[in-house]
Amino acid sequence: MKEKSILFQDFDERTREVSKYLMLIKNLEQGTIQLSMGVNKQKIRKIESDLEKTLKATSFLLLYNLTESTMRNAIEIIFDELSKEGISFDKIRKEIKVIIIKNIQNNHSPENLLNKINTIAVDIISASFDRDKLFSGNLDAKKIRKTAETYGFSCKTDSRKTGNGSDLLTVKIHRNDLAHGVKSFKEVGKDVSADELLKIKKKVVSYLKQILQNIETYLANKEYLNSSTETL
To answer: 232 vs 27, 76, 92, 221, CA distance in Å?
Structure first.
């Protein structure tokens, strides 16, 4: 049995979490799960409508969490690969050099940077990385495409299965509305069915999975290198 890629370990676990939650939502909507009340559970009642709406809205938080954690982990793995392979700054593609320089400007004082660096051409890459600064509530397919363009991995997916990530915009908007208190959970969850949530989840998961597959290919082919140095 082929060992699971590190890119997919956390992704698969979080995907299972979302899937189980959405199946709970579907069962609640169908009335096949109800509340047991009282010490001896002698009272059975349906889940209140407002609570069901709140639970549905929470699905968007889980889906956004899956999206952002997947992409953050993927970018971290790219930097880990550069560090593991001992890639020198002068050998990486220009776009990644720009990212590293911006990271240093934004996240590090000269003193802190010097404490992390022994061999500057190699260590500057990992020293510049800060996973907490990668994404902050702004992740959708457009941002992923921009990230792919910057790092040099493909953003192409099978649109029949993924919708090219278009559902990520819906997920991001609802997530931000909830996170910033623009809308209540009841408002966000009132007009969406369990089946609609499952369809969104299916396309989001398919999209992220294909992006991760693209990144696997990118790492295997060392496409993070400057093309002029690949054969040196």
So the answer is: 59, 26, 12, 15
**Reported pTM:** 0.86
**Residue 76 located in a structural domain:** yes
Q: Report yes or no on 208 lying in a domain.
A: yes
Sign of the torsion angle spanned by Cα atoms 144, 69, 17, 13? positive
Classify 138 as helix, strand or coil: coil
Task: Work out the end-to-end distance of the chain between its first and last CA atoms, rounded to an integer number of angstroms.
Answer: 36
Q: What is the per-residue burial (b if ≥16 Cβ within 10 Å, else e) of 54-72?
A: bbbbbbbbbbbebbbbbbb
pLDDT in tens, 70-111: 999 999 999 899 888 888 888 989 898 888 888 777 655 555
At position 177, the amino acid (one-letter code) is: D
pLDDT in tens, 135-185: 878 899 999 999 999 999 999 999 999 999 999 999 999 999 999 999 999
Total structural domains within the chain = 1
The pair of structure tokens assigned to 99 is 């990212």
With a CB cutoff of 8 Å and minimum separation 6, the contacts of 133 are: 103, 106, 107
Give me the helices (H) in 36-193, please: 49-84, 94-107, 110-116, 120-128, 141-151, 159-162, 167-179, 185-189
Q: Which domain holds residue 33?
A: 6-81+137-220
